[in-house]
Structure formats: structure tokens, C-alpha cells
């Protein structure tokens, strides 16, 4: 089974993916942050590095989904961020804010459309919904150099696109979790709340039985 966690920067995807994998014995595939040569310069000058970064993420996410296709035949894989977010949220936001020019954006979208014809979709998507203060707290807690001056307006715009994305999402089952008042990194009860929700929504390892919130 393929499960993906979706959510804005700092929503807590990596922590949740790691904890769920430990709890259920799933395998996690993380996104390419460490060693991504374009992320630090991108935050310095988005217009200049938008295309490079989007191609890097698209390729790395495509590699992941091909890997997941094979692995998910006999185990459950949890993916830290889905391929859709690159195109429908990050690239779209860059385009709409004038940082991705028309030609580059059309080239990128055409590659994305080609790639999506070759992939299979997650059976379950878990969306972590978090408001700006929560995102900012978590981003400052992890203290990554290149995220230090992240513009609140950038996070707000991404959040609007995330809401659009989940409202229109039809590729598979969707579980929406409001994480504003949850601290599943440190609070066992909060983690258990999420586990209970997931248990209610899937028969782990076999079939899906979703009752959306
Ligand atoms: N397609 C993309 N375009 C631009 N930036 C991206 C893209 N995908 C990921 N990023 C950036 O990569 C970095 C890592 O992503 P993020 O921090 O969301 O992952 P994370 O550490 O898994 O988050 P979380 O706190 O939810 O675990 C962030 O700075 C994010 O903006």
C-alpha cells in the first residue's frame, strides 16, 4: 500500500511519517532536502532558481513513485510529501506570483503531465492542516539556515493552494487532520489520536475502509 503525507512547510510531515513507520512497521521515503543543491539558492532568489528546483524535485519525486510502485506490492510505504504538491502548489504559486515565467512553467507542466501518466496514485493521502503560527513555530524550531527568512506571505499563499488542492483531490482516499492543537512529536496522547484516526480509516496492510472526517 502507498500512503502519502501532504502539508505545508513545517506542518510536521517528516515527524509523523517517522513515527507512523515505527508504530506500524511501514517503510518511509523522505523528500530530498539534505543535499538538494538548489534549495538554499532558491530561498535567496526564487525567480532565478525556480525552474532548476522544480525539475530537481519533480525528478526525485518521480524516482520515488517508481520505487514505491514496486515496493508497495508487498509492504506499506509512507511517502513524505506527494508529487502533486510540487506542481499544484509550489510551481503554481511561483507562476502566479510571477517568479516562474510562462515558457518555463508550461515546459514544467508538460513534463509533470507526462510523468503522471506513468505513475500510480497513493491509496491514502493524509493532509496535515496547519495555520501560519503553527507553521512558523515549527520552522523556527528546526532552525534550517535557508528557511530562516521565509516570508509569512509565502506560507499563506501555499496554504490557500493546499486547501484548493485537497478540495479538488480525487486520486484516492483523503484523510484531513487539523494539527494546530496536536503535538504528536512529544505527546503520546496526541500521537494516539492520530493512530486511532488512521486505524479507523484503514485496515493496515490490507484493504482501505475510509470514513472521511
Ligand atoms: N516543489 C517545491 N518547490 C519549492 N520548495 C519546495 C518544494 N518541495 C519542497 N520544497 C521545500 O523543501 C523544503 C523541505 O520541505 P518541508 O520543510 O516541507 O519538508 P519537511 O521538512 O518534510 O516538512 P515538515 O515540517 O512537514 O516535515 C522546504 O523548505 C520546502 O519549501
UniProtKB/TrEMBL annotation:
SUPFAM superfamilies: P-loop containing nucleoside triphosphate hydrolases (SSF52540)
Species of the source: Emticicia agri
Residue positions binding substrate: 31, 43, 54, 81, 86, 147
Active site: 80 (proton acceptor)
Sorted UniProt keywords: ATP-binding, Kinase, Nucleotide-binding, Transferase
Protein name in UniProt: Deoxynucleoside kinase
GO cellular component: cytoplasm
Residues that, per the record, bind ATP: 7-15
Keyword ATP-binding attached: yes
Family under the similarity heading: Belongs to the DCK/DGK family.
Domain (Deoxynucleoside kinase) ranges: 3-202
Amino acid at each position: 500500500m502507498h500512503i502519502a503525507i501532504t502539508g505545508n512547510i513545517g506542518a510536521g510531515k517528516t515527524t509523523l511519517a517517522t513515527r507512523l513507520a515505527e508504530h506500524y512497521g511501514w517503510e518511509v521515503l523522505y523528500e530530498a532536502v539534505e543535499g538538494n543543491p538548489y534549495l538554499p539558492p532558491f530561498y535567496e532568489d526564487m525567480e532565478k532558481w525556480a525552474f532548476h528546483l522544480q525539475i530537481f524535485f519533480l525528478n526525485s519525486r518521480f524516482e520515488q513513485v517508481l520505487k514505491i510502485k514496486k515496493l508497495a506490492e508487498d509492504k506499506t510505504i509512507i511517502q513524505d510529501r506527494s508529487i502533486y504538491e510540487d506542481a499544484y502548489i509550489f510551481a503554481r504559486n511561483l507562476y502566479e506570483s510571477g517568479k516562474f515565467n510562462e515558457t518555463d512553467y508550461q515546459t514544467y507542466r508538460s513534463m509533470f503531465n507526462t510523468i503522471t501518466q506513468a505513475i500510480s496514485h497513493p491509496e491514502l493521502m493524509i493532509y496535515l492542516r496547519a495555520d501560519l503560527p503553527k507553521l512558523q513555530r515549527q520552522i523556527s524550531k528546526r532552525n534550517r539556515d535557508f528557511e530562516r527568512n521565509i516570508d509569512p506571505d509565502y506560507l499563506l499563499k501555499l496554504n490557500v493552494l493546499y486547501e484548493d488542492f485537497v478540495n479538488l483531490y480525487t486520486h484516492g482516499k483523503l484523510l484531513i487532520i487539523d494539527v494546530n492543537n496536536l503535538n504528536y512529536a512529544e505527546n503520546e496522547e496526541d500521537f494516539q489520536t492520530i493512530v486511532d484516526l488512521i486505524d479507523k480509516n484503514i485496515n493496515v496492510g490490507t484493504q482501505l475502509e475510509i470514513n472521511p472526517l
